[in-house]
Amino acid sequence: MSQSRAAHHSDRARVAGVSLSHPARQVYADLGMSKRELAEYYRDIAEHMLPSIERRPLTIVRCPRGQGGQCFFQKHFDNVESLVGLEGIDVEESTGVGRYATAVGVAGLVQLVQLGALEIHAWLATSERLDCPDQMVFDLDPGIGVTWARLRDAAREVRERLDRRGLVSFVRTTGGKGLHVVAPLDPVRSWEEVRAFARALADAMQADTPAEYVAKADKQLRAGKIYVDYLRNARGATAVANYSTRTKRGAPVAVPIAWEELSRLTGANHYRLAGIRRRVAQLERPAWPDFATLRQKLPDGIARSA
Q1: Residues 6+ apart with CB under 8 A from 115
Q2: Are residues 80 and 208 in the same domain?
Q3: How many Å apart are CA 3 and CA 19, to the nearest integer?
Q4: 3-class DSSP state of 235
Q5: Number of Cβ atoms within 10 Å of the Cβ of 82
Q6: Are 28 and 67 in contact (CB under 8 A)?
Q7: In the predicted model, what is the mean pLDDT of residues 183-187?
């Protein structure tokens, strides 16, 4: 093999049937982690991650030069049919039909790494019922001065409020500053109805404890408070997927956890990519038991019920 051909050959690798270009490129330079190693992480975690993203339109954060380089969001994939492991989903938008991608199997996750994805975000609805979400998410975003203990208590309060309305919920570390409280839904209500319920709950938390919570997106109001963000419950919005890496140093990961684990964690970025394989191997039962099969309806009189 000639030197030029050998160099070209060594600059590609195959993971889960996907050809990776520049597999040795550092995607998390602070960890010395290569593109191939990140692809192998997604290959190994696929069984646990795919249920949260398959059949859902995806938005990814692409960082072609790795975590320290320029990153950008991408939601439209005009050439998706040419990419191994990805399928297209046509979505009606205000400007026409947008072509989104969804991952199919392990190859889909690895293909997203090949595209430079360091974050994977998914719709709260599947391709079968794009106009009816099957999840409701509360994104708890701590303002300056908010302690981890207060954030944990806020997540528990959202859980209690949902429980009083007959809705079981689950919690996820985001890999950033906040926590997500997620309630699976029977996909029969519209985006507008689900968002109205979520907004009413957020407004109620602000009204009951205005020193602790704020339900408005204005950053000037957030110092010392927790922003109860209900806006992810809107058509076209997304939430970070379970087990997705984040574009921060140290490769923090968004991780579904059991409620009783909250008291043992040190922060919303507690879990890093290096320890995820060990975590899932040691789980005696799923962190979110029955999430995939649990379907529950919002109560009638939606806005009043929260």
Answers
A1: 60, 62, 83
A2: no
A3: 21
A4: coil
A5: 8
A6: yes
A7: 97
CA end-to-end distance (rounded Å), the chain: 68
CATH number of the domain enclosing 98: 3.90.920.10
User: Kindly report the CA angle at 275 between 21 and 10, in degrees rounded to 5?
Assistant: 20
Q: How far apart are CA 153 and CA 203, in angstroms?
A: 17
Residue 58, beta-bridge partner list: 101, 122
Cβ contact 41:88 at 8 Å: no
Q: Given pLDDT bands bounded at 50, 70 and 90, which one contains residue 218?
A: confident
Strands 179-184 and 72-74: what pairing?
Answer: unpaired
Query: Measured over all CA atoms, what is the biggest interatomic distance in the chain, rounded to whole angstroms?
Result: 73
Q: Which residues contact 138 (CB under 8 A, 6 or more apart)?
A: 158, 180, 181, 182, 198, 201, 202, 228, 229, 230
Q: Which amino acid is at 191?
A: W
Tell me if 73 sits within 8 A of 86, measured CB to CB. Answer: no
Q: Is 50 exposed, middle or buried (0-12, 13-18, 19+ CB in 10 A)?
A: buried
Q: What does the pLDDT read at residue 11?
A: 83
Last residue of one domain, picked from the residues 122, 151, 173: 122
The whole-angstrom separation of Cα 172 and Cα 170 is 7
Mention every residue, 6+ apart, whose C-beta is less than 8 A from residue 105.
46, 50, 85
Q: Residue 175: beta bridge partners?
A: none
Distance CA 225, CA 102 (A): 36
* 241 domain-assigned: no
pLDDT of residue 214: 96
Same domain, 185 and 281: yes
Cα 44 to Cα 73: distance, rounded to the nearest angstrom: 25
> Which string of DSSP letters, residue by residue, matches 6-50?
HHHHHTEEEETTEEEESTTSEEETTTTEEHHHHHHHHHHHHHHHG
